Amino acid sequence: MEPRIILDAVTIGAVLAVLFTATLVHASLGFGTALVSMPLLVILLGLQVATPLVGLAAAVTVTVVLGREWRNMDVRSAWQLIVASLVGIPIGLLLLRAAPEYLVKTILGLTLVGYGIYNLGKPELPKIRPGRWVYLFGFAAGVLGGAYNTNGPPIVLYGVLRKWSAQEFRATVQGYFFPTAVLICGGHAAAGLWSAEVFKLFAFALPVVLLGNIVGIRLGRRIPAELFTRVLHAALVALGLLMFV
Predict the structure, then answer these.
(1) Each residue of 125-181: pLDDT tens digit?
(2) Of 16, 46, 42, 33, residue with least CA distance to 180
(3) Averaged confidence pLDDT in the chain
(4) Cα 226–Cα 232–Cα 234 angle in degrees, nearest 5
């Protein structure tokens, strides 16, 4: 049991600043709430408070971005990714027991870093077409989600390889993450992680999260297509490096 945290003005202010930044990144690019906020919030709040708080903040962001961008969503791809992930999750649970975590994450990390660096320095690889590829990436996301709670990187990589526009990328990724966000929040509630401290912080954070969404969506729509693509490739490198942490 983690020690009870003291919610003073400094701590609350730091939490709000972190969540605003994480939300702005997510609303601009289509992902990033947990990646940006969890390392810092775990230090500030501890794992048992940071985890459900970030889950709630991410659910709000996914819902807001999807509500604004749903017309641009590739509905077929989103559902195919979800279905394939559901197949992969049980395999991931078995992998958790059978394969060393460091080996799987090292392979994934090297793939993401290598692909991202290649495209930052050289012409991009050809665009992949809709078809069987979607099931492979969705399955990989399910396996990694079931094993190590890291289902995001394969979905982001698939969107990059499909060369979706910024609007289509954000909308389709949210279409995939929305049911996941709901299930994660439900799992936190069932596990008893929802507490008075979590909801107090969430009440403080909600206006900041909504503001981050507004600013992030507007910023994302102003990013030129070429710059958006380069930012995504840089984000893949960052995702890959996080696999080694």
Answers:
(1) 677 777 788 999 999 888 877 766 678 888 988 988 898 888 899 999 999 999 888
(2) 33
(3) 84
(4) 105
Residue ranges in 99-224 assigned as alpha helix (H): 101-121, 132-148, 152-162, 166-190, 196-222
Instruction: Report pLDDT digits (tens) over 124-137.
Output: 667 777 778 899 99
What is the distance between the alpha carbons of residues 120 and 106, in angstroms, rounded to a whole number?
Answer: 21
pLDDT at 115: 77
- What is the structure's pLDDT at 122? 66
Contacts by 150-154 with C-beta closer than 8 Å and gap 24+?
150/105, 150/108, 150/243, 151/85, 151/180, 152/31, 152/34, 152/35, 152/177, 152/239, 153/108, 153/112, 153/236, 153/239, 153/240, 153/243
Q: Which residues, in sequence order, are CB contacts of 96 under 8 Å at separation 6+?
A: 146, 147, 148
Answering whether pTM is above 0.90, one says no
Q: Which residue has the tokens 């080996």?
A: 103
- One-letter identity of residue 20: F
Collapsing DSSP to helix, strand or coil, 34 comes out as: helix
DSSP helix/strand/coil, 123 = coil
